């Protein structure tokens, strides 16, 4: 049932190009326009009542929400907040009938996400959920359900659910941008084209696996790993860090690169590994400065950049390149080397990858 792979996690990593294609084709029409699946009923009139969006989730799904905030605000020009479900539900948040509440959950059974959603409903919000499991509790209790087409995800560490959640965020951003008349026809078409080209590029990223495995086999015994980035790279940094800690039990930490010098840089030592995500063209020079800061403390730097930005090699111990795409879309590509790194480090350490200690696939207690 693992289809020839050693673990479900690896199988699911490799299923991502297909899962992304499925999620796109369910929600795009023949003219390349977003046409959301019939379980999303939200109309232009409904949307006109909305003055803000609140995205709530836990764990990996929360990390998808962080990217969602970035792209929805950028494309649709509507304010978006993102919160962790266990925080949102106890803080008496500003939510009313003008709020669109978006819950993101692979399982659709996460207790905190469900309760946060019920709280938002009580306050009058319209609830749209991005869910993988058909007929799950979150799906049943939502006004609109946007299903990710990831297929069953068995490994505790979420991979293809995350990338399909990201696809839903991009599709929602385009859908809202259109309703809000915030995007030109040309920008819209261009974004859709780049989105459709992503799964092919992801197939190229997967070809890096042997190199990443070799790197993991060299560095698996390090006990401190940092992930830094700016813009959407900071959100991907959180996800990369979570993947590594949950399956390899290595102490890892993610931080927005600009925050380093406000405290965390004190932890840098020669044996520290830093994954420096530098895929944002707009912020590339800023990231190079951050990399130089950590390099000066003799940390081991593994950089990730878009093809063509080879000047980063002068400041890094290793560099991996992702195919070129829009800054907003890089998370779909850049997360994959981080998933593979976590996987191969855990494998080198002999960890139980699909069922890590202390964790359950769906967290139905708070
Ligand atoms: O089923 P959900 O998406 O609601 O689950 C949320 C988190 O429990 C989940 O993403 C968790 O963080 C994963 N183990 C991460 O790989």
From TrEMBL:
Catalytic activity field: D-fructose 6-phosphate + L-glutamine = D-glucosamine 6-phosphate + L-glutamate
MF term (GO), any: carbohydrate derivative binding
Subcellular location per the Swiss-Prot or TrEMBL entry: Cytoplasm
EC supergroup of this enzyme: transferase
Entry EC no(s): 2.6.1.16
Domain SIS: 43-182, 215-356
Active site as annotated: 361
Function: Catalyzes the first step in hexosamine metabolism, converting fructose-6P into glucosamine-6P using glutamine as a nitrogen source.
Protein name: Glutamine--fructose-6-phosphate aminotransferase [isomerizing]
Organism: Mogibacterium kristiansenii
């Amino acid at each position: 049932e693992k289809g020839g792979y050693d673990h479900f996690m690896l199988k699911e990593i490799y299923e991502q190009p297909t899962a992304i294609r499925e999620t796109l084709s369910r929600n795009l029409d023949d003219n390349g326009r977003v046409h959301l699946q019939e379980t999303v009923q939200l109309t232009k009139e409904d949307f006109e009542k909305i003055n803000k969006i609140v995205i709530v989730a836990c764990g990996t799904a929360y990390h998808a929400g962080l990217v969602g905030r970035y792209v929805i605000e950028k494309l649709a020009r509507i304010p978006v907040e993102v919160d962790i479900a266990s925080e949102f539900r106890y803080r008496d948040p500003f939510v009313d009938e003008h709020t669109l509440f978006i819950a993101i959950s692979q399982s659709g059974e996460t207790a905190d996400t469900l309760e946060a959603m019920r709280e938002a409903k009580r306050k009058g919000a319209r609830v749209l959920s991005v869910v993988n499991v058909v007929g799950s509790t979150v799906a049943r209790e939502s006004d609109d359900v946007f299903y990710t087409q990831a297929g069953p995800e068995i490994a505790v560490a979420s991979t293809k659910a995350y990338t399909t959640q990201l696809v839903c965020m991009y599709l929602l951003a385009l859908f809202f941008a259109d309703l809000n008349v915030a995007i030109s026809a040309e920008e819209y078409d261009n974004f859709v084209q780049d989105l459709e080209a992503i799964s092919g590029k992801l197939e190229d990223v997967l070809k890096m696996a042997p190199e990443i495995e070799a790197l993991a086999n060299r560095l698996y015994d390090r006990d401190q790993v940092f992930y830094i980035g700016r813009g959407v790279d900071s959100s991907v940094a959180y996800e990369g860090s979570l993947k590594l800690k949950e399956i390899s039990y290595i102490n890892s930490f993610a931080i927005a690169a600009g925050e380093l010098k406000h405290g965390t840089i004190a932890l840098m030592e020669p044996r520290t590994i830093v994954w420096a995500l530098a895929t944002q063209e707009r912020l590339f020079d800023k990231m190079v400065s951050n990399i130089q800061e950590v390099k000066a403390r003799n940390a081991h730097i593994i950089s990730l950049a878009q093809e063509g930005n080879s000047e980063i090699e002068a400041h890094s111990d290793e560099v991996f390149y992702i195919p070129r795409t829009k800054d907003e879309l890089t998370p779909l590509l850049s997360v994959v080397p981080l998933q593979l790194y976590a996987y191969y480090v855990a494998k080198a350490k002999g960890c139980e990858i699909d069922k890590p200690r202390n964790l359950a696939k769906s967290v139905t207690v708070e």
